[in-house]
Amino acid sequence: MKTIRELLAADHRHCDDCFVAVEQAVAAAAWAGATTQFVAFADAMERHFSAEEGLLFPAFEERTGMRMGPTQVMRSEHAQMRQLLAAAGESLAAQDADDYSGNAETLLIMMQQHNMKEENVLYPMCDQQLGGQLETLVQRLATALDR
Question: Which SS3 state, helix, strand or coil, does residue 43 take?
Fold first, then answer.
């Protein structure tokens, strides 16, 4: 059985791979391909955020009683990343490589920092606190991620 950390860290890598595909297409000025890749990337990110916000965070908060702790920070960072995704999407639609690159660079830094916090702090806490419901929760998360 996978842990929450294993499943969601693997999904972080999937999102990273999608991001790289967009970057490569933009670098080649392959705008149609970049747009297609960006839609896949944005969709993967939104599925990830939604799985955490709809399943993982509520389960963790219910179990621990911590509603203003790490999950609140992660929700706030999700909102910031959603804004950056929207701005990057607009830049891409305008075929503005410079503006896209600025948004993408900021998003990449934020993703890296966010993922480190989740993988090294929050997910291990979730695995520990949610042990009794781990198998069911991992299955539900995997379904939500379409994995």
Answer: helix
- Tell me, yes or no, if the pTM score tops 0.90: yes
Exposure string of 65-80, with b = 16+ CB inside 10 Å and e = fewer, is: eeeeebbeebeebbee
Instruction: Determine whether domain 4-145 maps to CATH 1.20.120.520.
Output: yes
Averages of pLDDT over runs of 10 residues in the chain (147 residues) are 92 98 95 97 98 97 90 97 98 95 96 97 96 93 91
Alpha-carbon gap, residue 69 to 116, rounded angstroms: 16
Question: Residue 130 carries which side chain, given as an amino acid letter?
Answer: L
User: DSSP letters along 3-31, please?
Assistant: -HHHHHHHHHHHHHHHHHHHHHHHHTT-H
Please report the DSSP string for 97-136 in residue order: HHHHHHHHHHHHHHHHHHHHHIIIIIHHHHHHHTGGGHHH
Q: Report the interhelical angle of 70-93 vs 31-51 (nearest 10°).
A: 160
How many angstroms separate the CA atoms of 36 and 25, rounded? 10
Domain ranges of the chain: 4-145
